[in-house]
Design brief:
Elements (H helix, E strand, L loop, with lengths): L5 H17 L2 H19 L4 H20 L3 H32 L18 H17 L8 H9 L12 H9 L5 H33 L8 H32 L17 H7 L2 H12 L9 H19 L3 H20 L8 H23 L3 H11 L17 H14 L6 H4 L4 H23 L12
């Protein structure tokens, strides 16, 4: 079930909110747990049992860690449970990838098994692992109420696409939280903002992106290739950050404060800064649970470079079982290491330098996204060749061939929005009753516009479901 679906907006969310606030506080966690199970089962009924098995394994695994009296015993309990978590993730997400690549050898012929990846498995698996590690490190106590741990792992606002919520950030709110009118209204406004970003911007841009990337490379022109790449850069941002806004807004409605997941990454002055602003919950997860355990910055320079490169290699592989994702992760890792080597992490000295560095960062990310978006590496290579004028084609379908007034409007609004020109719009309402009233009218207008758009279109993809 998509947050941007009419089923969610018309039926599911109003029903859950009504039941949640009608019942006493002692029953509200149960309401959210049942709602989360229904939400997940709606899209993946066959894999609900697997998610519940993950909850069960981590419930007993954390208690096992807590009861072990020796460091060796605690570590054995930790890794034993993590292997179970990663075993499921490997089978459902990567099994066929490895079988396909092993079968390329002449003397190997493993049978191919049709495996369908459960929605959200990458996200809830990482949440479960963060819980185990937090217990192992002594940062939190093991949760002895099964339903509370089940609520943490399955909480529907962030279940299928994040943000990845670490247990130590929300365990107090799971045990007891206080909903307020101000938090609820902020949550509604944040949800509408994310919904508009997803439906009005990402969907509009995405239709053109899909049309361009469906073309064979020899039918691309330079301008259409650049249009597809830049439009995808905006679509991905508004799709994912819009979903994160909706998740954060829903969290506020129910009394949870999820950490921010995006902080205007397209104004970053280096690739390193970019990854401190893009998908923040994933970047911090890898930093806390992989980069630092590998030694982080406390090791020799060569080992630091290896740690950085390895983390981004794994980040790419986390996104999907494809060599395109692996190469995309390596691409980012190479620039991260180069920037650390030349000291690019320092602040820009003037506005011109800052602008040049922003352009460089966005160009690096845009180029990598061609590999990320392409169906395979040969197509990505040809697409990039056309983009940069290396491969000449006879195509006469310029950028204007794919654009209409709606796309142009979305692009014109999308560029300054992605660069943060509207970043304080929700805060403006706090400054005066008049501004608050104007903001509320504007948000109601956006909400109505998204409804009309959803009702009149069947095109409503969500990119990160595939990860």
């Amino acid at each position: 079930m998509l947050f941007s679906s009419l089923t969610f907006l018309h039926i599911f969310l109003p029903s859950v909110l009504l039941l949640y606030f009608l019942l006493p506080a002692s029953a509200r966690n149960y309401v959210l747990l049942v709602a989360s199970i229904i939400f997940y089962a709606w899209g993946e009924p066959l894999y609900l049992a697997m998610m519940l098995f993950t909850v069960t394994a981590n419930y007993f695994g954390a208690i096992w860690i807590e009861k072990m009296a020796t460091p060796f015993g605690k570590k054995a309990a930790l890794w034993g449970t993590i292997i179970v978590d990663l075993g499921f993730l490997f089978y459902f997400k990567y099994f066929n990838f490895f079988i396909e690549n092993l079968n390329r050898a002449d003397f190997i012929d493993f049978p191919f098994v049709e495996v369908i990846m459960p929605i959200g498995i990458s996200f809830y698996t990482f949440q479960a692992i963060s819980y185990l590690v937090d217990v192992y490190r002594g940062e939190v106590e093991a949760q002895h109420d099964f339903y509370k741990l089940a609520l943490y792992i399955s909480l529907f606002p962030q279940l299928v696409a994040g943000p990845i919520v670490k247990y130590h950030d929300v365990y107090e709110e799971i045990n007891g939280r206080r909903e307020t009118f101000d938090r609820f209204t902020y949550g509604v406004k944040r949800f509408i903002t994310g919904l508009a970003k997803k439906v009005l911007l990402a969907n509009t841009l995405g239709a053109v992106v899909d049309a361009i990337y469906a073309l064979p490379a020899e039918e691309l022109s330079v301008s259409s290739a650049w249009l597809g790449a830049s439009a995808y850069m905006l679509q991905l941002y508004f799709d994912f950050s819009g979903y994160s806004d909706m998740a954060i807004g829903l969290g506020h409605m129910f009394g949870f404060k999820f950490l921010e997941n995006f902080n205007y990454p397209y104004i970053s002055k280096s690739v390193s800064e970019f990854w401190r602003r893009w998908h923040i919950s994933l970047s911090t997860w890898f930093k806390q649970y992989l980069y630092i355990p590998l030694g982080g910055n406390r090791v020799s320079k060569p080992r630091q470079y290896f740690n950085l490169f390895f983390v981004f290699l794994v980040t790419g592989f986390w996104h999907g079982a494809s060599w395109s994702f692996v190469l995309w992760g390596m691409w980012n890792g190479i620039f991260i290491c180069l920037e650390k080597f030349v000291g690019l992490g320092k602040d820009a000295k003037n506005r011109l330098t800052a602008l040049i560095r922003i352009i460089y960062t966005d160009l690096v990310f845009l180029t990598g996204l061609v590999v990320f978006r392409a169906d395979n590496l040969p197509y990505a290579a040809d697409y990039l060749k056309v983009m940069f004028g290396i491969m000449k084609t006879d195509a006469d379908n310029g950028a204007s061939f794919y654009t209409d007034n709606l796309f142009i409007a979305a692009f014109i609004v999308g560029v300054p929005a992605a660069l943060g020109l509207f970043r304080n719009i929700l805060e403006q309402g706090k400054k005066s009753p008049r501004r608050n009233a104007a903001l509320n009218v504007w948000l109601l207008f956006l909400f109505a516009l998204t409804f009309l758009s959803l009702a009149g279109s069947t095109y409503n993809p969500f990119i990160y479901f595939r990860f």
